[in-house]
Every structure is written in C-alpha cells, then in structure tokens.
C-alpha cells in the first residue's frame, strides 16, 4: 500500500513537472502577443520635446504664454476635426439606444418576451433566461433591480431593426414609445415632426484618478463621477453668436444636411466633447469584446501641450502649422480658413467653415490645425499655467476651473489666433459656431516599435 502511494505521488510530480514551461524560473504571466493598431482616421505623433509658448514678440500683450521647453509622450490624433457625419453617428447611437431601452422597459412591464409579436420582439435579451450563460444568469439573479431604474446592465435586443415609418409600426405599444420621442404636435410646423433633441441624453461614469492619487484616504467609489447630459449640438449658435446677422440657413441645415457631412461639427460644448470621447471608447471596445480582442485605451481631448506640439508638425520655431510667418503661399493662395481683412470673411474663398480636409495638412498630416474651427483641449485656462506645470506631459487640468483652453483660431478670427502658440479660452458649458474638437489616444509601446508603426501612416 505504501509503495502504491509513493508511486502515485511520483506520477503526480512527473505530470506537474512535464506540464510546467517555466522550469521554476520567474518568467512572468504571458498573455497574448500584442501589436499596436493605428486607430482609424488618426495619425501617429511621435514623442518629443519643443519650446511651448510664444518665442516671437507678444504683440497682443497678453503675457500668458512665456516660453518653456517641455516633452510629450507619443499619441495618436485625428487627422481632421470631428465632422458633422461623425458626431451624427454618436447622436444616432444615443437615439437608437434610448428607443430600444424604452421599448424593452415597456415590454417588461407588460410581461411580454421575445416570443411575443410586436413590442415583445424588443424585450430585454435576458427575458428568455433559457438562453443565458451561467454568468449572465448569476448577474441577473443577484444584481437585477440595483440602480436608479432597476434596468441598468440588462442587455438590449439589437438584432431587431427599429421601425421609423409610422405606417409600419407593429402595435399600439410601439407607437406609444415612438410618439414619446417626438416634439408635441402643436410645436411642429410645415408638416414636419422632429425628434425632441432634449430626450437625447448620454450618461457615463468616469474616475477622477488625479484626485484619487492626491487623496490621503477614501474609497474607490468616492472618486467615481457620474455624468449625464444632452448631446445634440446647439444649432442656435449661428444666430446667437452674431447679432443683427442673417444666419438662419446655417441654423436650419448645417448639422443634419448631407451637404455639410464632412464639415467640422460646431455648437458642441467642452462637456459634450468629453462625452463623445467616452462614447467613442465604448463603441470601439464593444466591438473589441465581440471579436475577443483586448480593449483599447481611451479616446480623449488633447492637452494644451499635445495640441501645440502636434500643430507645429515637427517645425520647432514655426509661427503657423506650415512653418513660415506668412498666411499666403508663394502662389498667392491663403493657407487656412480665417478672416483675412476687416469685414471680409470670404477673401480666402470661404465665408463660414470648410470641409475638414481642406487646405494642405502639416508635416504630421493633420488638417486645419490653424483656422476653420478653434478646438477644445482638455486643459483648464490659467494665464500663469506655464510657470508651474511640469516639463513632462504638462497639463493644467482643474475640475473647479470651468475655463477651458481652445486652440487654433477659426473661420471668424484674425491671423493672430491661428498661430500655433496663441492661447484662448471658453467656458466649458458654452457652445459656439466657431469651436469644434478632435480627439487623441495614447500610444502604447516603446520607441523601438516606431519604425514599424511609421509605415502605417
């Protein structure tokens, strides 16, 4: 018996020895081999240092941009400003999700499931528990009812196409839900009834890591912030920004009409731009999850230093993204969309904005880093920020400071605001007809990988 036991132990030891690939060495946990993937529509900005601020004379006497040598890490940046078409994708996703949620909740209240016709076809996916995995069933049994509505976390049925044609609504319950999404009959005109854009709200959570790192005590939940806001652009900015001016056509058509699809979105506040970044990250990672791939890191607004570094395009002492001190090329053409002369907005052939890929890109292949629309950055505006920010990845980001830095100048600005070192600001809840944004994403990897990565540009 004792001999048999010793043989069993020896056999187990043999199995564990043969099954080990580490040979008892500290080799680390090995995951899947990872390769950097260039995000769609973005350009790689390699790490480097530059002199941030105005090296030329401070003509405007603002005294808020003394020169300072800083270094920024590598990142990807959108090659254009976010366009109306791209932002509409965000709006459509939010609208679709809200409608599906309303349909699923009503179906749940009516006790209808996927096997029922009409609104039942849009019931929550977990309404049929026989198709749930063990994990999903556990989550439903233990966490259903938690949250403000009791429906948080339940999966929507996205396999069924939504019906927007009123003549094809499947039943009266579906009609009830869809009717709640439109403006009241008495507020419509010209026979058109449109979506009530105040219903299009996007909610998300984020963690204030800066505050958590500085805090001496506190639990993780203390630093998780919840945001919920309306995300439809304020189209009235075309009227409000210019008194005694006829800009109704831009108010009526600019955001939604296909003629302006490739133009930069405007009328978006800093907070809405942040919400877009969160959604873009979620949208990408939902697809990564379905394909069994590792999540990507977050899309975000660029810091002020990143924006200026990218705008310079590798030209150290350039006044504008194209380098030279002039706004007219050697062939007599304007290099950007701005207001060249007093009252003459169209001297550069553009009255308002132009398509996002207009004019020549800078040496990082980024379009319209000067003019067209000014761009939100993540940084808070402080006239003395350059005096105290770090020389490594500098960023003055204060939650309590609602003045946010905008860069690049716009179609209605004079040339001074187009200079790569010029600073300006706007309040975070403000929306303007001349402010848009573009997003960035951190590059993950080391300098050695850049040789192969540059081939993707």
Descriptive terms for the model:
4-stranded antiparallel sheet, 4-stranded mixed sheet, formylglycine-generating oxidase activity, 12% strand, Glid_motil-assoc_lipo_GldK, Sulfatase_Mod_Factor_Kinase, alpha+beta, 457 residues, 12 strands, paralog of FGE (formylglycine-generating enzyme), globular, disordered C terminus, 2 domains, 25% helix, Gliding motility lipoprotein GldK
Question: In words, what does this structure look like?
Answer:
The chain is an alpha+beta fold. It has 2 domains: 42-83 and 289-456, paralog of FGE (formylglycine-generating enzyme), CATH 3.90.1580; 88-199, no CATH class. The chain is built from 11 helices and 12 strands. The strands form 4 sheets. A 4-stranded antiparallel β-sheet has the order 1-4-12-7. Helix 2 packs across helix 4. The longest helix has 26 residues, at 84-109. It holds the Pfam family FGE-sulfatase. GO terms for molecular function: formylglycine-generating oxidase activity. Residues 42-440 form the Sulfatase-modifying factor enzyme-like domain. This is Gliding motility lipoprotein GldK.
């Amino acid at each position: 018996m004792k001999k048999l036991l010793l043989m069993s132990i020896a056999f187990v030891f043999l199995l564990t020895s043969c099954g080990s690939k580490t040979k008892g060495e500290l080799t680390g946990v090995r995951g899947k081999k990872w390769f950097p993937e260039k995000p769609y529509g973005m350009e790689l900005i390699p790490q480097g240092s530059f002199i941030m601020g105005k090296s030329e004379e401070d003509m405007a006497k603002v005294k808020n941009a003394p020169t300072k040598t800083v270094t920024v890490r590598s990142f990807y940046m959108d090659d254009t400003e976010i366009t109306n078409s791209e932002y509409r994708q965000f709006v459509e996703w939010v609208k679709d999700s809200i409608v599906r949620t309303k349909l699923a909740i009503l179906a749940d209240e009516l006790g209808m499931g996927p096997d029922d016709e009409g609104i039942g076809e849009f019931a929550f996916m977990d309404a049929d528990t026989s198709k749930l995995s063990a994990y999903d069933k556990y989550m439903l049994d233990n966490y259903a009812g938690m949250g403000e509505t009791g429906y948080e976390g339940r999966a929507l049925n996205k396999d069924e196409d939504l019906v927007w044609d009123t003549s094809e609504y499947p039943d009266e319950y579906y009609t009830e839900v869809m009717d709640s999404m439109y403006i009241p009959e008495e507020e419509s005109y010209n026979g058109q009834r449109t979506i009530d854009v105040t219903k299009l709200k996007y909610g998300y959570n984020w963690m204030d890591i800066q505050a958590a790192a500085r805090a001496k005590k506190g639990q993780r939940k203390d630093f998780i912030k919840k945001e919920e806001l309306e995300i439809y652009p304020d189209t009235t900015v075309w009227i409000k920004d210019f008194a005694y001016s006829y800009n109704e056509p831009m108010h009526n058509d600019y955001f939604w009409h296909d003629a302006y699809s490739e133009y930069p979105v405007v009328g978006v506040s800093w907070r809405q731009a942040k919400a877009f970044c969160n959604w873009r990250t979620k949208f990408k990672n939902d697809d990564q999850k379905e394909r069994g791939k590792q999540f990507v890191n977050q899309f975000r607004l660029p810091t002020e230093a990143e924006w200026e570094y990218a705008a310079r395009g590798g030209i150290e002492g350039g006044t504008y993204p194209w380098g030279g001190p002039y706004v007219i090329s050697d062939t007599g053409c304007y290099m950007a969309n701005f207001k060249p002369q007093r009252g003459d907005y169209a001297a550069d052939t553009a009255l308002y904005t132009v398509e996002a890929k207009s004019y020549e890109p800078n040496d990082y292949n980024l379009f319209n880093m000067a003019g067209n629309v000014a761009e939100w950055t993540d940084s808070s505006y402080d006239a003395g920020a350059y005096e105290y920010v770090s020389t490594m990845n500098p960023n003055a980001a204060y939650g309590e400071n609602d003045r946010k830095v905008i860069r690049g100048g716009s179609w209605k600005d004079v040339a001074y605001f187009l200079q790569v070192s010029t600073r300006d600001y706007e309040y975070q809840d403000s929306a303007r007809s001349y402010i848009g944004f573009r997003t960035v994403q951190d590059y993950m990897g080391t300098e050695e990988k850049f040789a192969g990565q540059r081939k993707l540009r």
